[in-house]
Amino acid sequence: MPYDVLEKTINSLPEAAVIELTHYVQYLASIYSTKEKDISVTNRINDFLQKNPDAFAEFKTMEKASLSSIRELTKNDTW
């Protein structure tokens, strides 16, 4: 997904969702930037998800999103 499309999509979200999304992105960025070589990024993410199984629960409905449903939801959006 091109950056400008992603940015427009994020900006169209409710403010609370943007704040929460920012939190998770910062967390994932902190994992990626850590220089500990004994634990891979994937292992750290898996450890986090095992300790916090509901961390991304609000995003589970997006698993079933298809291109046609996204088009239907966004057909009246103006950017």
Q: What features would you describe in this structure?
A:
The protein is mainly α and 79 residues long. The protein is 59% helix and 0% strand. The protein has 4 helices and no strands. The radius of gyration is 16 Å and the shape is elongated. 0% of the residues are buried.
Topology:
Layout: H1 3-11, H2 15-33, H3 41-51, H4 67-74
Multimeric status of the protein: single chain
The helix content, as a percent range, equals 55-70%
What would you report as the Rg, rounded to the nearest angstrom?
16 Å
Strand content: under 5%
**Could you tell me the number of beta strands?**
0
Helix-strand string:
HHHH
Instruction: Assign an overall shape.
Output: elongated
Distance between the termini: 16 Å
Mean pLDDT: 76
Return residue spans where pLDDT drops below 50 for at least 5 consecutive residues.
Answer: none
Largest sheet: none
Structural class: mainly alpha
Number of helices: 4
Q: In a few lines, what is going on in this structure?
A:
The chain is mainly alpha-helical and 79 residues long.
